From TrEMBL:
Keyword Nucleus belongs to the record: no
Signal peptide range in chain numbering: none
Record carries keyword Metal-binding: yes
Protein name: Globin domain-containing protein
Family of the protein in this entry: Belongs to the globin family.
UniProt keyword annotations, A-Z: Heme, Iron, Metal-binding, Oxygen transport, Transport
PANTHER family assigned: GLOBIN-LIKE PROTEIN (PTHR47217:SF1)
Domain Globin: 8-156
GO terms assigned for molecular function: heme binding; metal ion binding; oxygen binding; oxygen carrier activity
Length: 184
């Protein structure tokens, strides 16, 4: 899927994202904490990327100020995406910035896919079946899949750029194989 196509949302999808985000944002700190804890539960290998929490016991996470700060920063980043969901150019720019920053830390599309599964689960849990529609779920899946598409594109671009920086020394003179060198 092209990046451009991944970033275009219908009016109904935008409404569903904003409605569900309103519910999640209502308790942003606690929902951010739940989201990070869910990431560690659903994808235990993700914890390796958070060295400062490596020895932190699960029951101590909610009270840890650095953990709470990280959880809140995740929520603010998602708020940026929700605020820009009706503007594909801005949404792309925000996602590219996120993906580049994470790429430098060794995180790529697979890791954003993990976060997508976490977000879909969070929306289901937080909104409960009373308010949750299929459109809410599919809209979140689409948003998080768009992030994976952007991450894949960023990763490809950064690899190509790093290959372009590799300089191969220019050969000077004439190279002769042992088979065509002059005999003395």
């Amino acid at each position: 899927m092209s990046v451009r196509k991944a970033l275009v949302f219908s009016k109904d999808e935008i409404r569903a994202l904003k409605e569900s985000w309103y519910v999640l944002w209502g308790d942003k700190t606690n929902n951010g904490i739940k989201m990070l804890m869910k990431l560690f539960k659903m994808h235990p290998e993700s914890r390796a990327f958070y060295k400062e929490f490596k020895d932190l016991r699960e029951q101590d996470m909610p009270a840890n100020k650095r953990f709470r700060g990280l959880a809140l920063s995740y929520m603010y980043k998602l708020t940026e995406y929700i605020d820009a969901v009706d503007d594909p150019d801005t949404l792309e720019d925000l996602m590219v910035t996120t993906c580049k920053a994470h790429h430098r830390r060794g995180l790529g599309p697979k890791h954003f896919k993990w976060m997508g599964s976490v977000m879909t689960s969070m929306v289901k849990e937080t909104m409960k079946s009373t308010y949750l529609t299929e459109l809410h779920k599919t809209s979140w899946t689409k948003l998080m899949d768009a992030l994976v598409v952007v991450a894949t594109d960023v990763q490809k671009t950064l690899k190509e750029e790093s290959l372009d920086k590799i300089q191969i020394p220019e050969m000077t003179g004439v190279w002769r194989s042992p088979h065509n060198s002059p005999r003395f």
